[in-house]
């Protein structure tokens, strides 16, 4: 049985897109089992030692991609324009989004091939924080802060306590949720007689966008991956 293609394996391990790792391989910077391999299509024998630019590379089981989603893209494979179009060059067949962002919503969208991690990140029992920047039609109030902390009734069920932070301009607020119901942010403000004009997810658990450009995607760093697994009580 043939092993995984070298370029697909390196992309899955977070060294870049297929195009980027192809350049790395053809430049003679990748060794498999002690020997230089120049063919991106080389099939790596199971258990073979990998080195990239002279450094040993640990083979990880899963791929996790961080996308800075722009507005105008849907979190779906079946509709378009799809967020998967922004992941060109990465192996996407087994990638699933961790939750969804509406078509008009921007911000952090995580993809993973680890189904157990996906379940832990999305199940309300694990209370993984999701932080959003929200622009509102009307200024938010201290009463809104209290109401969000107590929980908002949506479809007959109260939301988990949420933190609403008011800045100098109360039409721009930050909201931290512990769950991810359908259109939750918009529905919570609607229940308070307000309207969301702009929405952006800033953080998911320990992950933030930092300086990732809008529309760009990158693999998680090993440090981010460890922090993510620790946040939901998994060993990784």
UniProtKB/TrEMBL annotation:
Swiss-Prot/TrEMBL keywords: Isomerase, RNA-binding
InterPro entries given in the database record: PsdUridine_s_RsuA/RluB/E/F_cat, PsdUridine_synth_cat_dom_sf, PsdUridine_synth_RsuA/RluA, PsdUridine_synth_RsuA/RluB/E/F, PsdUridine_synth_RsuA/RluB_CS, RsuA_PseudoU_synthase, S4_RNA-bd, S4_RNA-bd_sf
Xref: Pfam families: PseudoU_synth_2, S4
PANTHER family: PSEUDOURIDINE SYNTHASE, PSEUDOURIDINE SYNTHASE FAMILY PROTEIN-RELATED
SMART domains: S4 (SM00363)
Protein family per UniProt: Belongs to the pseudouridine synthase RsuA family.
Biological processes per GO annotation: enzyme-directed rRNA pseudouridine synthesis
Protein name per Swiss-Prot or TrEMBL: Pseudouridine synthase
E.C. code: 5.4.99.-
Sample GO molecular function, one term: rRNA pseudouridine synthase activity
Residue ranges of every copy of the RNA-binding S4 domain listed in the record: 4-64
UniProt cross-references to CDD domains, sorted A to Z: PseudoU_synth_RsuA (cd02553)
Gene Ontology cellular component list: cytosol
């Amino acid at each position: 049985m043939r092993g995984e293609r070298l370029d697909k394996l390196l992309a899955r391990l977070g060294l870049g897109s297929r195009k980027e790792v192809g350049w790395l391989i053809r430049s003679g910077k990748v060794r498999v089992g002690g020997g230089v391999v120049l063919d991106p299509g080389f099939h790596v024998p199971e258990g073979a030692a990998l080195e990239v630019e002279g450094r040993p590379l640990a083979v990880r089981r899963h791929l996790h991609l961080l996308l800075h989603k722009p507005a105008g893209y849907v979190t779906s494979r079946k509709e378009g324009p799809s967020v998967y179009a922004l992941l060109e060059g990465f192996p996407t067949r087994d990638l699933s989004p961790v939750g969804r962002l509406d078509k008009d919503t921007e911000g952090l969208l995580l993809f993973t091939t680890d189904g157990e991690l996906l379940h832990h990140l999305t199940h309300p029992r694990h209370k993984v924080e999701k932080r959003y920047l929200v622009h509102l039609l009307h200024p938010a109030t201290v009463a809104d802060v209290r109401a969000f902390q107590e929980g908002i009734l949506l479809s007959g069920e109260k939301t988990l306590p949420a933190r609403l932070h008011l800045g100098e301009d109360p039409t721009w607020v930050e909201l931290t949720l512990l769950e991810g119901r359908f259109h939750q942010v918009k529905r919570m403000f609607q229940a308070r007689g307000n309207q969301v004009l702009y929405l952006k997810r800033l953080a998911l658990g320990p992950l933030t966008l930092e300086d990732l450009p809008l529309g760009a995607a990158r693999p998680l760093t090993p440090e981010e991956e460890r922090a993510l697994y620790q946040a939901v009580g998994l060993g990784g």
